[in-house]
């Protein structure tokens, strides 16, 4: 079964470049982003890991931990980290999971259940292992994304999506198209105008069903 929004994120124990990870414990009291890759030493993935390394301080400001998954072993991960730092200019200060067993890939439905990757596999053999999950402090899946091998992920968009998830998580708010922090948010229809104004201040009513308010700080 696929992992869907609002599912409890599958828990697992795995070895990583930062030691043994007990995933639910590792998340702590904040958010987590788990992102996967076909294989180490591949061009698009190297640029993506470099982008994440550069953004680690931004994720930390948002009380969010990031963790990578690759279907190669720890020895390869450690070697690959040197290339990533050389390209991206920042050390890889986040764990990379050894998923040679495909345990995490199967738990998160990154591959077909009967997938088999030969020892001499190429990145193309694991092309479907390129997904992103944002997980909340409640261990629930808040957002998922999947990309093909040929399209490098936009981690600025992933950061923006994280901001939107955090701004609307558990409250009667939503974000409009192309929203960025600091812009107005949409008030849910579960609140009357009076209730919404009492909670969020004066509304900007574009349509009876489309009401904007300043984003809470």
Summarize the structure in words.
The protein is α+β, with helices and mostly antiparallel strands and 217 residues long. The chain folds into 2 domains: 141 residues, 3-Layer(aba) Sandwich (Glutaredoxin), CATH 3.40.30; 41 residues, no CATH class. The chain has 6 helices and 11 strands. A 5-stranded mixed beta sheet has the order 5-4-3-6-7, covered by helices on one side. The longest helix is centred in the first third of the chain and has 19 residues. The radius of gyration is 19 Å and the shape is elongated.
Helices and strands, with pairings:
Layout: E1 13-16, E2 19-22, H1 23-27, E3 31-37, H2 43-61, E4 64-70, H3 74-88, E5 96-98, H4 103-107, E6 131-135, E7 141-146, H5 155-168, E8 173-174, E9 185-187, H6 193-200, E10 204-207, E11 210-213
Parallel strand pairs: 3-4, 4-5
Antiparallel strand pairs: 1-2, 3-6, 6-7, 8-9, 9-11, 10-11
Name its key features.
217 residues, alpha+beta, Glutaredoxin, five-stranded mixed β-sheet, four-stranded antiparallel β-sheet, 6 helices, 11 strands
CATH architecture term of the largest domain? 3-Layer(aba) Sandwich
Rg calculated over all Cα atoms: 19 Å
Spans of 5+ residues with little confidence (pLDDT < 50)?
A: none
Oligomer: single chain
Count of alpha/pi helices: 6
User: Which percent band covers the strand fraction?
Assistant: 15-25%
Total of domains? 2
CATH topology (level 3) name of the largest domain: Glutaredoxin
Can you list the strand order of the major beta sheet? 5-4-3-6-7
Fourth-tier CATH superfamily name of the largest domain: Glutaredoxin
Mean pLDDT across residues: 92
């Amino acid at each position: 079964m696929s992992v869907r929004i609002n599912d409890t994120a599958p828990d697992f124990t795995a070895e990583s470049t930062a030691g043994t990870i007990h995933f639910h414990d590792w998340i702590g009291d904040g958010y987590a982003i788990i992102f996967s890759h076909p294989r180490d030493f591949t061009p698009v993935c190297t640029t993506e890991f470099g982008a994440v390394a550069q953004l680690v301080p931004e994720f930390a400001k948002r009380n969010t931990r990031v963790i990578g998954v690759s279907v190669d072993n720890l020895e390869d991960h450690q070697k690959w980290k040197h290339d990533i730092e050389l390209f991206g200019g920042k050390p890889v200060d986040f764990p990379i999971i050894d998923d040679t067993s495909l345990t995490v890939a199967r738990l998160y439905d990154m591959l077909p259940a009967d997938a088999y990757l030969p020892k001499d596999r190429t990145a193309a053999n694991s092309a479907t292992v390129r997904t992103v999950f944002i997980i909340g402090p409640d261990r629930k899946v808040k957002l998922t994304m999947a990309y093909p091998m040929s399209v490098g992920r936009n981690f600025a968009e992933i950061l923006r999506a994280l901001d939107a998830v955090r701004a609307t998580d558990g409250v009667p708010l939503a974000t409009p198209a192309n929203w960025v922090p600091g812009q107005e948010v949409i008030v849910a229809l579960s609140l009357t105008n009076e209730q919404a104004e009492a909670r969020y201040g004066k509304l900007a009513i574009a349509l009876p069903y489309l009401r904007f308010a300043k984003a809470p700080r």
